């Protein structure tokens, strides 16, 4: 498969591997090739990478980077996507902040991308400026589904912190169960940073940062319009139950006339509709159950207790 591509200069590097600019042979199509080494990765990590590729394979939206091809060589997994010119975090580095009209344009496109993901029951889980690319003509494209997760209808996710918590919601940093509204908090953080030049919560110590995200109030600048402020206040609500979410989010005056909603073909239980009172009640019960401390004892104790319970059950179920 590799023989179908010309590989040019390296354009990015991360813990996952390297990204090169390239071109598909016999066509003028410019692509990005991500080379992910297999060596040193566990079978579980490789399975999760395959799952990411499968999730991406099904996504077709103007504001989501398109997966064109993927294949394996002896040593690497190669993922080929469309090539997008610039990165949002570079603009932040060079320009500091953006005029509100541009923040609004970016907001509309990111809302479109998230609405599409959430209506397909997919959480991005790693929204940050580094994962947002700028294509031709200012088109914003969401990429890097390394932690994306397709939600089954009944799951609530318990998490461990991966990467920087700058854009993570309070429930995520507290390692509480979370849902698609965690992506909406991250969206609020990104838009706040684009407008003001810095994230809503910022300090060099991860411990302090977690405390700020959980307890601190957001400081609102005077040069922010009412519509923009009310939109960001809605997204940056520390209580996920009260956060601005679908379907109301689509009709907020800050983005109302700028969001593309693609026609959905028979989606089952999208995350973008208001759940029925029964489903909401069930979810709250699960959150309470998963959040409750178990007698204040440590994790190791739970594990040994769970193992003992299992052994006990096995003994009982064994035929005499």
Structural class, judged by helices and strands? alpha+beta
Subunit organisation of the chains: single chain
Number of helices: 9
Strand content bin: 15-25%
Helix and strand sequence: EEEHEEEHHEEEEHHHHHH
The radius of gyration over CA amounts to: 22 Å
Structure description:
The chain has 320 residues and is α+β, with helices and mostly antiparallel strands. Helix content is 37%, strand content 16%. It is built from nine helices and ten strands. A five-stranded antiparallel sheet has the order 1-2-3-5-4, with helices on one face. α3 (100-119) packs antiparallel against α5 and α5 (181-196) runs antiparallel to α7. It is globular and about 50 Å long. The N and C termini lie far apart (58 Å). The relative contact order is 0.10. Residues 147-162 and 294-305 have low confidence and may be disordered.
List keywords for this structure.
16% strand, 320 residues, three-stranded antiparallel β-sheet, 37% helix, globular, 10 strands, five-stranded antiparallel β-sheet, alpha+beta
Topology, element by element:
Layout: E1 5-14, E2 17-24, E3 30-37, H1 43-57, E4 67-72, E5 76-82, E6 86-87, H2 88-95, H3 100-119, E7 122-123, E8 132-134, E9 140-142, E10 149-150, H4 170-173, H5 181-196, H6 206-215, H7 226-235, H8 277-291, H9 299-317
Antiparallel strand pairs: 1-2, 2-3, 3-5, 4-5, 6-8, 7-10, 8-9
Helix pairs in contact: 3-5, 5-7
């Amino acid at each position: 498969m590799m023989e179908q591509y010309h590989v040019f200069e390296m354009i990015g590097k991360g813990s996952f591997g390297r990204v090169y600019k390239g071109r598909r042979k016999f066509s003028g199509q410019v692509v990005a090739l991500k080379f992910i080494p297999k060596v040193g990765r566990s079978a579980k990590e490789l399975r999760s990478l395959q799952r990411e590729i499968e999730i991406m394979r099904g996504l077709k939206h103007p504001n989501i980077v398109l997966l064109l091809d993927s294949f394996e060589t002896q040593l690497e997994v190669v993922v080929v996507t469309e090539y997008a010119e610039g990165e949002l975090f570079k603009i932040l580095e060079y320009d500091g902040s953006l005029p509100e009209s541009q923040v609004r344009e970016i907001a509309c496109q990111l809302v479109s991308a998230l609405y599409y993901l959430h209506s397909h029951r997919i959480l991005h889980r790693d929204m940050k400026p580094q994962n947002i690319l700028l294509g031709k003509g200012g088109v914003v494209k969401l990429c890097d589904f390394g932690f994306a997760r397709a939600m089954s209808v009944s799951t609530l996710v318990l998490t461990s912190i991966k990467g920087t918590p700058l854009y993570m919601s309070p429930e995520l940093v507290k390692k509480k169960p979370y849902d698609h509204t965690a992506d909406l908090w991250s969206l609020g953080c990104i838009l706040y940073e684009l407008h003001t030049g810095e994230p809503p919560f910022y300090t060099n110590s991860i411990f302090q940062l977690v405390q700020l995200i959980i307890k601190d109030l957001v400081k609102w600048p005077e040069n922010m319009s009412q519509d923009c402020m009310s939109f960001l206040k809605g997204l940056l609500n520390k209580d996920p139950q009260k956060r601005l979410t679908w379907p109301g989010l689509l009709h907020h005056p800050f983005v109302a006339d700028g969001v593309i909603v693609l026609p959905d073909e028979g989606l089952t239980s999208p995350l973008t509709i208001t759940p029925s009172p029964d489903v909401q009640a069930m979810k709250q019960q699960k959150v309470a159950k998963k959040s409750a401390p178990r007698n204040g004892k440590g994790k190791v104790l739970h594990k040994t207790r769970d193992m003992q319970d299992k052994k006990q059950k096995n003994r009982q179920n064994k035929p005499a």
